[in-house]
Amino acid sequence: MPDFGLSLPDYPWNALAPYRERAAAHPDGTVDLSIGTPVDPTPAIVRRALADAADAPGYPTTQGTAEVRQAIAEWYRRRRGADGVDESSVMPTVGSKELVAWLPFLLGLREGDVVVRPVVAYPTYDIGATLAGARAVAADDLSALDAETRSRVKLVWINSPGNPTGSVRDAESLSRLVAEARDLGAVVASDECYAELGWGDWDEARGGRAVPSVLDTTVSGGDLTGLLSVYSLSKQSNLAGYRAAFVAGDPGIIANLINSRKHAGMIVPRPVQDAMTVALGDDAHVREQKDRYRRRREALKPAVEDYGMRIEDSEAGLYLWGTMGEDTWTSVGRFADLGIVVGPGVFYGDHGQGRIRISLTATDERIDAAVRRLARG
Predict the structure, then answer these.
(1) Based on the number of CB atoms within 10 Å of its own CB, is 98 exposed (0-12), middle (13-18) or buried (19 or more)?
(2) Which of these, 27, 124, 206, 216, could form a disulfide with 81 (CB 3.0-4.6 Å)?
(3) Axis-axis angle for helices 270-280, 44-52 (nearest 10)
C-alpha cells in the first residue's frame, strides 16, 4: 500500500502544549494571549441577517450574490480608497487563510516559480507556495533578491498591517513595491485583514491616517492589473466562526479564480454571504469593537513594558510584538509560569527568534488578570 497524504510541516501551534499545561497550573487559571481568536459577541445585526437567511435550500454561487458583491465593492471604495473596485473585481472566500494557502496553486504557479513573502510572516504563505510546488523566499524589498531569483518571481505577498509584527507600509512604500513587481510581471497580493485596527499615527479615531490598501488609487495609479487585496471580517466584526472573507482586485484574475473555484466547489454558504452584506454596510459595530481593543491595548502595553518587554512595531492589529532580550522559548516559559500563554516568535520565521507575540483577543477580565500578574512579576 503506497503512502498517501501531503508532506507538510507539523502545525506549529502544537509545540505550545507543554506551556499551556504550565499556564493551566496557575491558581487563577489561564490567560490565553497566544492565538488571536475573537472573544467578543458577533454583532446582533449580523446574527439576525444570518438567521433570516437560514432557509437556503439551493446551492450558493461561487462569485457571490449581487448584494454581497456590491457591498464588498462599496466598502473598498468607502473605507479603502479603492475607487476602481466594482462588482466584477470582487469575490467572497471561505475565510482569508483558505485563499492565502491556495492562491499560488490557483494562479497556476509551479516548480521553479518563486513566491516572495515578508521576512517575518504568518507561516501559511510558505505553505501556499509548497502546495503549488513553488519556492517561498523571504524578503521585504524585491531589490534584496539576486537577479536569478527575481527572474522567477510570480507572486509577491504583502502583509500590512503585518501579522505578527503590526508593522504598516505607507502608500509610498506600497507604490514602490507594486512598481517593482509589475516590472517583473508578478502578481501582488496584499493581506490587509487588520487594516481597520490601526493605532497611534494609524488610528483615524484619534486623528491618525487610514492604513493604505494596495488597491488605493494613490498606490495602484487607478490600475488594478496584477493586484489583489485579501480581507477578512473575522477581526473587525467577530466573524471568525463564519469564515467570512473576500478578495478584490484585477478583474481578469478574479474571473479566473471564480471559474477555478466553481470546479473545486470552493463556495461561501449563502447565509454567510447575507451576513457579510449586512456587516460590510455597518461601520458602527466596527468602531465599537475597535474601542474594545484600544482599551485592552492601553492596559496591556504598559504592563508588559514594565515587566521588561521591549515592544517593536505594533503600529496596528491585535498583537504586541517584541522581545525580553532572551531566547523565545525562555520568554514563553516565563509568561507560562504567570499563567499567561503567548505566541512564540519563531513560528513566524528565523527573524522571529528571541521575540514573542501577545494577543489583545481576551476578555476584559482576562486582560485585567494578566496586568495584575505582570505587576506582581
Answers:
(1) middle
(2) 216
(3) 150
Distance CA 133, CA 230 (A): 22
CA-to-CA distance for 48 and 232, rounded, in angstroms? 20
C-alpha 113/C-alpha 127 separation (Å) is: 14
Q: Within 10 Å of residue 92's Cβ, how many Cβ atoms?
A: 26
pLDDT by residue (tens digit) across 318-363? 999 999 999 999 999 999 999 999 999 999 999 999 999 999 999 9
Q: Quick one: cell of 253?
A: 484574475
Cell 505594533 belongs to residue: 314
How far, in Å, CA of 13 to CA of 128, rounded?
18
Longest dimension (CA), the chain: 64
Return averaged pLDDT per consecutive 10 residues of the chain, 377 residues in all. Answer: 80 91 96 95 98 96 97 97 96 96 98 97 95 96 95 97 97 97 97 97 96 97 97 97 98 98 97 98 97 98 98 98 97 98 95 97 97 94
Contact 118, 141 (CB under 8 A): no
- Which of 312, 246, 232 lies closest to 38 in space, CA to CA? 232
Q: Which burial class, exposed, middle or buried, applies to 340 when counting CB atoms under 10 A from its CB (0-12, 13-18, 19+)? A: buried
The answer to whether 31 touches 373, Cβ cutoff 8 Å, is: yes
Rounded distance between C-alpha atoms, residue 241 and residue 105, angstroms:
25
Report the DSSP beta bridge partners of residue 145. none
The pTM of the full predicted model, rounded to 2 decimals, is: 0.95
| pLDDT for res 217 | 96
